[in-house]
Write a structure and sequence with these properties.
Length: 458
């Protein structure tokens, strides 16, 4: 019945990332044709507030003309060049300078790639290279966390702590381990407050390092706020205690700022919000407001020095992509950073973020809502079958996906993650748009309640 519609062409031709492929063959796609500010429009002309900024990324919304002009200007001047074998170009140099200057801890150099996955993959390789340079080839294990999301390349999917990214892909690879998820609401024990929970997780990390042998553990990777794992905000004192363990065993810290970077948490980087002192930082998404693909890896001076020493032995630093620091992406990133500065996007995010958190917090007393959590302009609302016992819904019900479907009907796109709804709107969202987003979520929550009552005798 779909005929030669755009939906049937999609089903016939596209292998969709992150999609239930079987269901897609009958459901078909939602085709987005344009956008304005924080909204996108579908091919039937319906408008939606993009409550997740696409994939947590279009921080300046969907029609920022200055980013388009920056891209076109660069395309006309120098559409491509690279930085292999001593070549360079000004947009790349200027962006590296800017990022090193913006870093919340002293960083030495910036390396460019196209995606968050490639940036984290690069971080893994740099950690291994670093320890080879220091003459300790046995110190190679990297610890990620359960429910973390770091991407989908072979190494970054291994760092990711979600079963869908491992199962049947034969991952994780060797030398990558996972420690506890810092989600207090879900995983605390009876009577355990956030600080005690953080102490227990730090002790568990220490035990893991001891079991493996500290001489074999090279690095720990963390998102300041876990995004795709369900918007998990670290409990009080967590990073302070984790970092004490890392320092004790000479284990590097990689901060994955792919979602948190550039204002999302109400500071330029999530590392500032939560007191991380990373040796390596990875960033992407809001670096260009997602108008062009670009990611960056910032490395500390000791890591850079080790790269120099190791590459000297071999004659070359044997890592880099054709599109490492694509000039058009770099030009768009420079314009993005300029706009962040001119509009003080961090202060704006803090203000509208507080409004989003307060707006969602009003649903804490709702019978279906187990937890409302968040910081700045990132938030999660977790639904539960039983508020008192935190009993989750039967996953087969797909309650959060159902709510997201209702929200779409009310003109809001939200991200269902298990039983949690993720919020991460464009940073340019206005207070009125925040209120509207929250109101549309509220309507979808009412619909979900009615659906549960009528369909499932809840
Ligand atoms: N790291 C984090 C924290 C992410 O959220 C993502 C993507 O959502 C990635 C890494 C991977 O980035 P990409 O999809 O650009 O490879």
């Amino acid at each position: 019945h779909l005929g030669n519609s755009i939906a049937s062409r999609d089903i016939a031709s596209l292998l969709h990332p992150y999609t239930n492929l079987k269901a897609h063959e009958s459901v078909g796609p939602m085709v987005i044709t344009g956008g304005r500010g924080v909204t996108v429009v579908d091919d039937a002309g319906r408008e939606y507030i993009e409550g997740v900024a696409g994939l947590w990324c279009t921080s300046l919304g969907f029609d920022e003309p200055r980013l388009v002009e920056a891209a076109v200007r660069q395309l006309r001047t120098l559409p491509f060049y690279h930085a292999f074998a001593h070549k360079s170009h000004e947009p790349g140099i200027e962006l590296a300078e800017k990022l090193v200057a913006l870093a919340p801890v002293p960083m030495s150099k910036a390396f460019f790639a196209c995606s968050g996955s490639e940036a984290n993959d690069t971080a893994v390789k740099l950690v291994w290279y670093y320890n080879n340079a220091l003459g300790r080839p046995q110190k190679k294990k990297i610890i990620g966390r359960i429910k973390a999301y770091h991407g989908v390349t072979v190494a970054s999917a291994s760092l990711t702590g979600l079963p869908n990214n491992h199962r049947d892909f034969d991952l994780p690879i060797d030398r990558i381990l996972h420690t506890d998820c810092p989600h207090w609401y879900r995983f605390h024990e009876e009577g355990e407050d956030e600080e005690a929970f953080a102490s227990r997780l730090a002790a568990s990390l220490e035990a893991l390092i001891q079991r493996e042998g500290p001489e074999t553990v090279a690095a720990f990777i963390a998102e300041p706020v876990m995004g795709a794992g369900g918007v998990i905000v670290p409990p009080r004192t967590y990073f302070e205690k984790i970092q004490a363990v890392l320092r004790k065993h000479d284990v590097l810290l990689i901060a994955d700022e792919v979602i948190c970077g550039f204002g999302r948490t109400g500071a330029m980087f999530g590392s500032e919000t939560f007191g991380l002192k990373p040796d390596i930082m990875t960033m992407a998404k809001a670096l260009t407001s997602a108008y062009m693909p670009l990611s960056a890896v910032l490395v500390s001076e000791p890591i850079y020095r080790a790269c120099v020493a190791e590459s000297e032995k071999i004659g070359v630093f044997g890592h880099g992509y054709t599109y490492s620091g694509h000039p058009v992406s770099c030009a768009v990133a420079l314009e993005t950073l300029k706009i962040y500065e001119e509009r003080d996007i961090v202060a704006h995010t803090r203000a509208v973020g507080a409004r989003l958190q307060e707006g969602l917090a009003r649903y804490r007393s709702h019978p279906l809502v187990g937890e409302v959590r968040g910081v700045g302009l990132i938030a999660g609302v977790e639904l539960v079958a039983d508020k008192a016992t935190r009993q989750p819904f039967d996953p087969k019900l797909g309650v959060a996906a159902r709510l997201a479907g209702f929200a779409q009907g009310h003109g809001a796109i939200l991200r269902p993650i298990g039983d949690t709804l993720g919020f991460s709107p464009p940073l340019i969202i206005t207070p009125e748009e925040v209120d509207e987003l929250v109101a549309r979520f509220g309507r979808a929550l009412d619909d979900t309640t009615a659906w549960l009552e009528h369909e499932h005798r809840f």
